[in-house]
């Protein structure tokens, strides 16, 4: 893989000079706009992953940026390619352009993709200026659909209404993914409540559950990375050729041996993470009072109170010896009651809840990394899909039926996102991260974990989804489980409104830029 | 990111506690008020009553603030109508305090020594009930943190029960207080007698409302 990359770098010069002059200019424009789009993604969206961790004080801003950069890039580079393919080929068949335009077809496709990138980028910047809740994914899909409509006519678009594919599948995943994330986060939070918060001793319970949650998170992240991202590593596995068996058998990522190694690797990493977490949370001391006793006293006390109430009733409603006997009993009961009261300290749960949150700080950081990773995996495609389509067709001078997303494009996208994060995203994170402290570490972890899992599933299925809206769905799920004080449902209405506006807006801008570029270059 | 930040509404639980703090300041003035009343220092009574009235008004402003924040479209951890009820009952506590203060300003009344102590202990019991429910409201934010369940909820349920017991005790004292005042029937004019009854009734309302409020909060809990 490495030698491949070096050869590629060395031949960049030949690769570039071998093209038509027009193509050369277009390649530069495509790279610039692709980068612009990636920058926008980094500037607008990346804060989603880390903002809550900054808000809850789990990470400093600087650390958050570094961690986000690493995981965004890793996600983009290792898992980012499937979604790119959907954006490039899922909406319409690029081969159709040849039938429409003949020889100039490749230029049309390239210009269209460049126009889409510019349209989505401009729309995003406008939206973030006005603070509208638009999605990077919706913008680019809208733009590509718009281009397809004018270049090929609406009939050429794979609307997929009948067989549930193409645009229908993409659009429905925009609704399904937040709903799925909400369901996952609701269930996960109910489980956390049951296993930790509703336990007699929440701190002890949290210490038991936390390493297990770390294991799941690490396992999923590593398993997906190596399964999806190391295809080339398994295919060109030169290190395996010494072994007799593998010189005769091709080894893909789905080969049982590869799967086994992947799983083993994921398990080992998960275990390491678990062990580290266990050590870290060992510092947090247990609750001094043993729970059962503490809990018992609650019930016992209630019974004593009842007995006292009834005895009082007896003493006040009777006369003579009955009354005085009841008073005697009442006095004995008071002593018993005060003894029991000494054993239950109402301030105990307060500190216990704070300790649970402190344990979850570690988990929140981990889940934030997970979101950054998944976001990189899903959203890099919004810049890279059209970019690699444009550059590849320009280089070939024709529309090639079968193509893959080149590694350099994934790297460019990853770098663009990271630079967007470093130049503008941090400011968003700083200003808004502080405002959402309601997302305490337990809530933050739950929402982020649910969103990350959903986004990752969508990425593996090649579905470009809105990561922001998925995270919104996940937060709603926690809210439904009574985890959040107040949720403003008007935001959901705004999201739907922006959803309806973004797609036509992206499409219109793309059409505009497409015609402008067409006049300039063809 | 902005979208997610916008998703969070202002949590009403802290403002409810602020509201309760103001109510408590108001109720706390009952002791100096009654002390002044019992030694016939009507100027002081007047002054404290005015202070109570001012605090009640200040609490009202917080109340309106919360009611505005609880507008439609807010999805809350606790049913919106229950929260509005809680605020209304808290407001009622201040209202009853103000009524009580106003009744004391009407006329300097003689209090027979035999009744004085019972009256004081009756007031103390009522204030104890209020203090009990104030403690419960103070636990609201912790309840939110544990999602209204678990040991925290158990403890709050227990505190609610305590308030109920206090209310019952206040009732018992009120009964004996009424018996005493009827025994002294002839010492008062009709008007004075009627005023005493009104005063007792208003004071007793404090414990009643405290119990209602405590029960309202109990109904938000997720108990096993």
Automatic annotation (TrEMBL), chain A:
Chief location of this protein within or outside the cell: membrane
GO biological process terms on file: phosphate ion transmembrane transport
Keywords linked to the UniProt accession: Membrane, Phosphate transport, Transmembrane, Transmembrane helix, Transport
UniProt KW Cell membrane keyword: no
UniProt membrane topology term: Multi-pass membrane protein
GO molecular function terms listed in the Swiss-Prot or TrEMBL record: phosphate transmembrane transporter activity
Extent of the signal sequence: none
Transmembrane segments: 25-43, 64-85, 105-127, 139-161, 167-189, 209-227, 257-281, 359-377, 408-426, 447-465, 496-517
Protein name: Phosphate transporter
Source lineage: Bacteria, Pseudomonadati, Planctomycetota, Phycisphaerae, Phycisphaerales
UniProtKB/TrEMBL annotation, chain B:
InterPro entries: DUF47, PhoU-like_sf, Put_Phosphate_transp_reg
Cytoplasm keyword on record: no
Keywords on record: Coiled coil
Coiled-coil blocks: 45-72
Matches recorded under Gene3D superfamilies: Phosphate transport system protein phou homolog 2, domain 2
Alphabetical list of NCBIfam families matching this protein: TIGR00153 family protein
Family stated for the protein in its record: Belongs to the UPF0111 family.
Protein name: TIGR00153 family protein
The species this protein was found in: Poriferisphaera corsica
């Amino acid at each position: 893989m490495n030698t491949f990359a070096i050869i590629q770098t060395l031949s960049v010069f030949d690769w570039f000079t071998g093209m038509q002059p027009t193509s050369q200019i277009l390649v530069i424009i495509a790279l610039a706009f692709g980068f612009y789009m990636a920058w926008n993604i980094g500037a607008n969206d990346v804060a989603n992953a880390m903002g809550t961790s900054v808000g809850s004080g789990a990470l400093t801003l600087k650390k958050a940026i570094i961690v986000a950069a690493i995981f965004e890039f890793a996600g983009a580079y290792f898992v980012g390619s499937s979604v790119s393919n959907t954006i490039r080929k899922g909406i319409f068949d690029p081969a159709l352009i040849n039938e429409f335009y003949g020889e100039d077809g490749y230029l049309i496709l390239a210009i269209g993709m460049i126009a889409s990138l510019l349209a989505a980028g401009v729309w995003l910047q406008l939206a973030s200026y006005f603070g509208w809740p638009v999605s990077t994914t919706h913008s680019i899909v809208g733009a590509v659909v718009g281009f397809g409509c004018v270049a090929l006519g609406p009939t050429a678009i794979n609307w997929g209404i009948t067989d549930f594919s193409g645009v229908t599948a993409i659009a429905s995943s925009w609704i399904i993914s937040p709903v799925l994330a909400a369901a996952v986060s609701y269930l996960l939070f109910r489980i956390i409540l049951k296993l930790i918060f509703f336990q007699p001793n929440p701190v002890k319970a949290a210490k038991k559950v936390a390493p297990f949650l770390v294991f799941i998170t690490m396992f999923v992240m590593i398993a997906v990375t190596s399964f999806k991202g190391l295809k080339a590593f398994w295919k060109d596995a030169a290190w395996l050729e010494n072994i007799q068996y593998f010189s005769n058998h091709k080894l893909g990522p789905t080969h049982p041996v590869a799967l086994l190694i992947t799983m083993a690797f994921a398990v080992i990493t998960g275990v390491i993470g678990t062990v580290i977490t266990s050590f870290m949370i060992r510092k947090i001391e247990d609750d001094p009072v043993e729970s059962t006793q503490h809990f018992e006293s609650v019930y016992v006390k209630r019974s004593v109170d009842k007995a006292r109430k009834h005895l009082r009733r007896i003493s006040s409603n009777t006369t003579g010896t009955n009354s005085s006997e009841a008073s005697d009993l009442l006095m004995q009961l008071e002593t018993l009651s005060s003894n029991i009261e000494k054993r239950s300290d109402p301030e105990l749960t307060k500190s216990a809840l704070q300790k649970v949150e402190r344990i979850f700080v570690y988990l929140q950081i981990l889940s934030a990394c997970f979101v950054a990773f998944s976001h990189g995996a899903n959203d890099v495609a919004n810049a890279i899909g059209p970019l690699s389509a444009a550059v590849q067709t320009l280089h070939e001078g024709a529309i090639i039926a079968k193509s893959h997303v080149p590694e350099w494009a994934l790297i460019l996208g990853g770098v663009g996102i990271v630079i967007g994060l470093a130049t503008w995203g941090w400011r968003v994170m700083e200003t808004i991260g502080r405002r959402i402290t309601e997302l305490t570490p337990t809530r933050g972890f739950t929402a982020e974990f649910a969103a990350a899992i959903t986004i990752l599933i969508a990425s593996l299925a090649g579905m470009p989804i809105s990561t922001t809206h998925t995270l919104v769905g996940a937060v709603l799920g926690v809210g439904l489980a009574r985890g959040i004080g107040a949720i403003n449902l008007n935001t959901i209405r705004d999201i739907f409104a922006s959803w309806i506006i973004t797609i036509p807006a992206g499409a219109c801008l793309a059409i505009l830029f497409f015609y402008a570029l067409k006049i300039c270059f063809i | 990111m902005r979208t997610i930040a916008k998703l969070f509404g202002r949590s009403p639980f802290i403002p409810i506690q602020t509201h309760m703090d103001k109510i408590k300041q108001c109720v706390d003035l009952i002791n100096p008020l009654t002390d002044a009343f019992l030694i016939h220092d009507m100027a002081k009574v007047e002054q404290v009553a005015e202070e109570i009235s001012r605090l009640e008004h200040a609490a009202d402003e917080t109340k309106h603030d919360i009611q505005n924040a609880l507008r439609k479209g807010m999805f809350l951890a606790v049913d919106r109508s229950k929260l509005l009820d809680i605020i209304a009952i808290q407001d009622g506590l201040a209202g009853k305090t103000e009524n009580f203060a106003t009744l004391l300003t009407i006329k300097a009344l003689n209090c027979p020594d035999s009744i004085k102590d019972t009256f004081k202990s009756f007031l103390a019991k009522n204030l104890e009930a209020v203090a009990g429910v104030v403690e419960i409201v103070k636990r609201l934010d912790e309840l939110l943190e544990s999602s209204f369940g678990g040991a925290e909820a158990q403890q709050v349920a227990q505190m609610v029960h305590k308030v109920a017991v206090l209310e019952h005790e206040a009732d018992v004292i009120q009964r004996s207080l009424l018996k005493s005042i009827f025994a002294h029937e002839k010492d008062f004019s009709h008007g004075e007698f009627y005023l005493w009854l009104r005063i007792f009734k208003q004071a007793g309302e404090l414990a009643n409302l405290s119990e209602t409020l405590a029960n309202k909060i109990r109904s938000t809990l997720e108990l096993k």
